[in-house]
Amino acid sequence: MTRRTRMEIAVYPLGTGSPDISEHVSRIVKILDRCDLLYEVTTMGTLVEGPVDELFSLARKLHDSVFSDPVERIVTVIKIDDTRGGG
Q1: Distance CA 80, CA 73 (A)
Q2: What CATH number has the domain bearing residue 39?
Q3: DSSP string for residues in 19-57
């Protein structure tokens, strides 16, 4: 059985007091660099490919990482494309 799982994730910090989110993006990219999964940062979010359990774990890390800054709220949008073929 062939399984291919992709995730698109976007983490939006709200109530930061500034429209500049470069520090948040930088922190997220550092986490992605350490995760050993294939990823691509786009203007609308980040695409990541890997085992589904690792993707969900990574999503939690990315979401939680933004709370290390003074933010009022975080909205995280996740899309999962999980293809199971074969048989």
Answers
A1: 23
A2: 3.30.70.930
A3: S--HHHHHHHHHHHHHTTSEEEE-SS-EEEES-HHHHHH
CA atoms within 13 A on the CB side of 34: 8
Q: Report the Cα 8 to chain-centroid distance in Å.
A: 7
Q: Could you tell me what percent of the chain has a pLDDT over 90?
A: 56
Residue type, 12: Y
Domain housing 47: 2-82
Burial label for 25, CB within 10 Å (0-12, 13-18, 19+), is: middle
Q: Which two tokens stand for residue 26?
A: 């930088």
N-to-C CA span, the chain: 6
- 3-class secondary-structure state, position 46: strand
Q: What is the pTM of this model?
A: 0.85
